[in-house]
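We keep the chain:
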Amino acid sequence: MYIYILIFVFIAYFFMIERMIETRHAITFNSLSHSNLEWKRFFQFLFLLIMSVLWFISAFRDEHIGSDHGNYVDAFHNIEKNGDAYFTEKGYVLLNKIAIIIGGGTVTLTILVTTLILLNFIIYIRKYVSPDYYIFSILVFVFQPYLYIQCSFNIMRQGCAIAIVLLSIPFLLQGKWVKYIFTILIASTFHSSVLVMLLLILFRKIDFTPTLIRRLAIICLIMNLLNVGTLVFKIISRYSLYETYDASLLNFRPYVFAITFIVLYFTSIYSELYKSKEEKVLVDLFILSLVFLIFAVQNDMLYRVYIVLAFISIPGITIICKNLKGKRNYIELCFVGYYSLFYIFYTSLWYINNDTAYMPFKFIFE
């Protein structure tokens, strides 16, 4: 349990430093003054420092950490012996073969997976997030347990696929559809679920308005209340490898209504949330990820799709906080509180249930 507490305190501490520096020095990165360039370098240093610590924790964790990691260890040994695994995605099989060539066993594989996920996250955040929101981005990334912890400890194939999806977002924003489709197809060789992201081409063709978003939110709420998602997945599961349609832990009415309220609130101040066309697209991605979440909590596999959207939505969250700074400062505080409680809730469940997949945390050298 100690490592999860240390992660929480470590990131919370540096987030407070980030905000303290920004407030006291009135940093504006639109200015190219020497002082601002120095602070920009400092934020970049903190960002890379924290990401390096997170990389070390994930890359050198014991092979028993992560509920699915044991399956990946078995798959690695099967690939080592006969070149095949229980899953069909060839990109992840190739990654295993590269680890086998390098040597070092499953430790090398874990290092490669962690590097792929965190390196692409760093590239993505540095491209679309203001430096004074780098630590805030890490806070969202880590405190939402299905992002950093689950994708690098547990659902490693999907984590790799999502990491490659992040590289496709510039093509999505620029309307370079061939490059976007090609990148998504590469990502699908690690986990086929990311093929759903091809629907974002349709998303870019629609000019979303507050009215349209509200209507979609209400439709998803009604579908949740009627349990449509569970019924749909029962049908899908007959034709897929997934035979479960259990509801997500978050599928309870107060949470669903709270997310719906948040969507409706953001649509009520929609024009304040962005200042450019690119910002609008990133903000829309975040708000529509919440709309989908209203529906997706009905099923764990649907929630897996939401995880992809949650990853690519982080810049949208920072844009909202940045544009509302000085007018609605409580928005950022609410985000920090929400993700902090999310993290505390899940890690507490592991502790209460004595979940041996995550506790006690050990490194490979212990």
In short: Residues 34-59 form the longest helix (26 residues). The chain is about 70% helix and 0% strand. The radius of gyration is 20 Å.
